[in-house]
Amino acid sequence: MMRFLLLALVLALPAHAQDAAAVLDTYRDQVERPSRTTIAPVIEALATSGDPAAATVLAAWADRRLAVMDDGTFVIMDGDALSDLAGQPVEGEAQPLRPNAGVRGLIASALVPFQLTDPDPAARGAARDAIARNPAPEHLPAIRGALARAADPSLSRLERLLTLRFDPDPAARVAAIESFGADQSMDLRAALNPLLATTRVATLGPPEGNVAREIPVSELGREGAYDLLVSAGLAPARLTRDAAQAALVANIADGQVAGIAVASLNTQAARDDAYSALEAAGTVPPAATEDEVDAALDSATFADVYAEPNADVTDAARAALNGIATRVGAMQAADLALDALSLASIYFLAAIGLAITFGVMRVINMAHGEFIMMGAYTGYAVQQVVPDYTLSLVVALPLAFLVTFAAGVALERLVIRHLYKRPLETLLATFGVSIMLQQLAKNIFGTQARPLTAPDWLSGSLVINDLVQVSMIRVAIFVLALLFLGLYLFIMRRTRLGLEVRAVQQNPTMAASMGISPGRINMLAFGLGSGIAGIAGVAIGLFAQVTSELGQQYIVQSFMTVVVGGVGSIFGTLAGAALIGFLQKGIEWLNPSNTLAAQTYMILFIIIFIQFRPRGIIALKGRAAGD
Amino acid sequence: MRRSTVIFIAALAVFVAVITVMAGAGMISTSFVKTLGMTLCLCLAAVAMDLVWGYAGILSLGHMAFFALGGYMIGMWLMYARTEAIVIEALSGQPLPATPEEIRQGIGNQIFGVIGTSDIPWVWGFAHSLPLQLLLVVLVPGVLAGLFAWLAFRSRVTGVYLSILTQAGTLALALHLFQNDSGLRGNNGLSGLQNLPGVSASQDATSLWLFWASALALAAGYLLAAWVVGGKFGSVIRAIRDDEQRVRFLGYPVEGFKLFVFTLTAVIAAIAGALYYPQAGIINPAEMMPIASIYLAVWVAIGGRGRLYGAVIGAAVVSLLSSWFTGGRAPSIPLGFYTIDWVDWWQVLLGLVFVLVTLLAPRGIGGLFK
Amino acid sequence: MSALLEVRGISVSFDGFRAINNLSFAIGAAELRAVIGPNGAGKTTFMDIVTGKTRPDSGDVIFGDPPRSLLRMTEAQIARAGVGRKFQRPTVFEDQTVGANLMMALRAPRNPFAVLRFRATDGHHARVVELAAEVGLADHLHRIAGELSHGQKQWLEIGMLLAQEPRLLLVDEPAAGMTLAEREHTTTLLTRLAQTRAVVVVEHDMEFVRRLDCRVTVLHEGAVLAEGSLDHVTADRQVIDVYLGRG
Question: Which sign does the torsion angle of CA B30, B32, B35, B37 carry?
Fold first, then answer.
């Protein structure tokens, strides 16, 4: 491409200072029947013609608005109106030229220098983007020319990005690399990375060129190193197993190979022996022996060699990339921490209701996950009625609370109340409720996932830089989690209900004797826990698919959150959610390809954790904890 | 021996005889014989569940994981040995006799091609040998259960905490097996297990053999369980269920008893699974998700805890009813405005029955016999 | 007389509350001792520590002959070493027969495999019958323990303790909820038991302690306030202030 364009430049010289019409005339044949392979000189000639109309003509040509009149005059069409190349209206009939996509691409790059100086900022921006997407050495003069006329920081940045790759002077390239300082944006990395591209070579003498590093044979492995030698033409190919086998098969005679019965060739050792026998008989060419391989490897050098010949440039690029890697690492850690925080918020939201029903009332509610699911479906149902997403969310949150509050109260009244003395059976009965609710959801809403669409203001991301960004939904969930922490603390510590709940939690008999009805308190606490699950469901539904199995995906983690955190303490739940969220993200980071493994290891960690702190992170000690 | 044990063994013998005769006369299909054989295996798992939960009070939500592990262990041999035969057969057409490496390569390709590799993972190290793999049927679930129980009981995790922990452990195991690099073919699981390697008999015959083996295993497991709970040991584990701390003050090492029961029942469940999956023909990690173990608890609860025959009745009735209802053979009920299709409504009914049984008849169906 | 149980300077606190504060205590091999004190004095915690349910923060508990520390032992090991405990609320296994309850408590190897192989001999059955007779439950051997009356459960629990053949018996409020006649029976039994072993009775009821006619240790705020005969301690000014004075 580059060579081709240089050629074009040479060919274009005689056309210098011609006007556009003259250039078109000169190349009339190519212009009327353009092909990608022959049109470049014409375009170049036009672009460098110095005619002020050149840009307009090129643009018209690219837009298929350049036309030829019957008398052979080139005109520009604008709808039905015709004008000559200088812009004067013309009367008559004209046939538009139809350059193909390849030709139009070439015209577009020739237009770039014109666009860079376009008075319209949008056009200038588009030109910059076009170059940034597809940088080439020939853009440099155009950019520098444009810069000389007017200062433009973005263009100056682009100029340095191109300089560090394409400038013929290594010193200028090093200076360009160093000019970026602490910059770590994607485009810089994209410009730097090609500078460090290497090829792996095998040589008999010391390697030539800008050597990145020499590689010991041990790192390549005997096979790999020898294969490199073979592909460099420095050693004969080894006998492959397939080739040896083919040789044996080819030499089968009377059920024997070189006097050895075919039936006995059922091990590799026997086959090797047979091949050696063939070798000895001279039937097949000798294969490279191990000693020969060793000798060849000893005499050879293996190295990675930079494609870029100048060591100063590669050194500067490596230093810059290392610096970037460090900063990117820090950013990624921050990003990971934010991710973990979001996950912890989700677990906290999912578990906070459970912390009330399990933590405060010592009742295990296996249907808790289904309450989350009910909340999500409530949100979906509301969106079917209220089309405005913001408004529907405003309606859905309290409605989800009410629906699951009612469901929780019903569950407590109908089932759990009868089982307070049999906690294991509560687990089973609520499991029965859980499978009922799941199947009912399937029967009502079908098995396919239902979307719960977030309003626009929630669907964006909070972009901090190239690497660190958090989706607004996750920010909202974090805020929601904080809100619920505050609400919980307010209810438990500042209200009559909270006082009574704590009284019942600590000593139901005593509480009852003081006129508090434990039945009513349990019912309200259970309803509250379930209601919060419903709200968590709406929040989770905004970023996850709403299916009847939604709750199941969170139930085990929710239980773990409560158990790890320490039963009966909201700060324990908070700590548990944080621990599990950060742990899961941390393990995912160590093994990014495998989120399943992350969950496995996390659960194993929790089982081991419970060994050391059976009562969780925040443990109630002594008699108050009960036994 | 208790009267109920004698009655149970006699009833089982009669049942096996009747089915054998009917299958021989062609009155019931091979697939139905398999269903019955599989049901017997589930009954054995239920006996184990009853022992650990009904008697020792440990509500494990993970015993079906041991069941599935048993299935995996035997399934590895079934799949390996059968693939080996196929590969040897395929390679016999070549001009040179196959080397062990070629056979191994061929087996690797056949079994693991589906997860994009042909290397045989180390966990398959014993898969070529039936006796070794049979040993693993007992050892792998046994050691796993023992280790888990030792960790959990030692730190005095009890009650619902323990249940949640078993559930979490089960989930971890299932998620591990869902990964391709677990070495057990990820979510593809193991398949073709219904073909017994080296046996040329028809499926009619082999399904009957497996049915007998399942019945024998159930009888043996039932007798073992009855023996364990019949004596002072049974008395102690029931005491542990009712008041663990008091049993400690009597001088019994409670953790040791729980560990023993948990591990023993895990092994029984594994044996049941090792007999179940050759009849099912296929196994995958979804089978060991916690939900399966919770269903096992449901069966035992409906059948009646603390009675071995209750567990068997529960497992048999509920699992057969489940497959009848969800198999689409149950007649729909038209209500005019709505038709109750049991494929959609069976789970709802089961959940409801389960809540009602827990609330109103904690002793389950078995309790009605007293 | 050398001590069977010696508690040396133990302390334990829960969430900053000192339940036991540098408590020392000793009892001989065949002695009856009453421990009294107001609520929260640390009586139950003291028993929890001796039986291994609670670990003290400091101090040591030495038991038996040859003497050894109980602190490193589990509840079950301590029980097997010869410490029996009777709870305030009768705790018997209500699901099982009186005979099965007693059989379980009977002195025999306790490890799971031994228990699995255990088959009751005539000797074991005879001993169960004998124990049932001793606590007045001979006619109820085949009844389910849950059907017994409150008093009968107390007796069954004492029978189970006897079956364990402990060298030290810790008894928590044995007289609670008993009729007068039952109390008398209990007093006689405890006194008789103390002839062959050490018996520590934790009690609230002064009248009952007086009947026992033994040395009394008064606990207050986790430490020993006074020790001696009942008359001696009731004359103690401090004891009157903190305990008797409050009724």
Answer: negative
- Inspect the interface and report whether the beta carbons of B249 and C75 lie closer than 8 Å: yes
Helix-strand-coil split of chain A, %, nearest 5? 65, 10, 25
Answer whether residue C90 is part of any domain.
no
Q: Is C113 in CB contact (< 8 Å) with chain A?
A: no
Distance from the Cα of C245 to chain B's closest Cα (Å) equals: 36
Q: How many CB pairs under 8 A join B and C?
A: 74
Residue A359 per-residue DSSP state? I
* Burial class of residue C125 in the structure, from the number of CB atoms within 10 Å of its CB (0-12 exposed, 13-18 middle, 19+ buried): middle
> CA geometry: angle at C92 spanning C86 and C96, to 5°?
155
Domain membership of residue C228 as a residue range: 3-82+166-246
The rounded distance, in Å, linking the Cα atoms of B299 and B310 is 9
Same domain, C220 and C104: no
Residue C12 lies in a domain: yes
How confident is the model over B159-199, as pLDDT tens digits?
Answer: 888 888 898 889 989 988 998 888 899 889 999 899 888 88
Flag whether C87 is in a domain.
no
Residue B250 and residue C96: Cβ atoms within 8 Å? Answer: no
Q: Using one digit for the tens of pLDDT, what is the confidence trace for A287-315?
A: 777 777 788 888 888 888 888 888 888 88
Cα–Cα distance for residue pair B309/B9, rounded to 1 Å: 10
Final residue belonging to a domain, choices C145, C165, C185: C165
Domain A331-625, what architecture?
Orthogonal Bundle (1.10)
**C75 and C193 co-located in one domain:** yes
Q: How far apart are CA C25 and CA A61, in angstroms?
A: 109
Spatial CB neighbours of B183, under 8 Å, sequence gap ≥ 6: B121, B122, B123, B124
Assigned token pair, A238: 């080894």
Report yes or no on C61 lying in a domain: yes
Domain boundary residue among C165, C197, C216?
A: C165
Task: Please state, in angstroms and rounded to a whole number, the distance separating the CA atoms of residues B47 and B53.
Answer: 10
Instruction: Specify whether C123 is located in the same domain as C15.
Output: no
Total domains in chain C come to: 2
Contacts of C15 in chain A (CB under 8 A): 621-622, 624
Whether C125 and C174 map to the same domain: the answer is: no
SS3 at position A87: coil
Residues of chain C above pLDDT 90, percent: 16
ipTM value > 0.95: no
Residue A623 has pLDDT above 50, yes or no: no
**Subunit contact C79:B251, Cβ cutoff 8 A:** yes
What are the C-alpha distances in Å from A344 to residues A347, A544, A553?
5, 15, 15
Q: How many CA atoms lie within 13 A of A339 on its CB side?
A: 16
CA distance A321 to chain C (A): 54
> Which residue of C12, C13, C15 is the best one to mutate when testing the A interface, meaning the one whose CB has the most A CBs within 10 A?
C15
